Amino acid sequence: MAILVVAEHDNKTVRKATLNTVAAARKLGSDIHVLIAGHQAGEAAKAAAVISGVTKVLHADAPHLAEFLAENVAALVVSLAKSYTHILAPATSNGKNVMPRAAGLLDVQQISDISGVESADTFVRPIYAGNALATVKSKDPIKVITVRTTAFDAVSATGSNAPVEAVQAPQDAGFSAFVSREVSKSERPELTAAKIIVSGGRGMGSGENFTKVLEPLADRLGAAMGASRAAVDAGFVPNDWQVGQTGKIVAPDLYVAVGISGAIQHLAGMKDSRVIVAINKDEEAPIFQVADFGVVGDLFQLVPSLVEELKK
Question: What is the pTM of this model?
Answer without folding.
Answer: 0.88
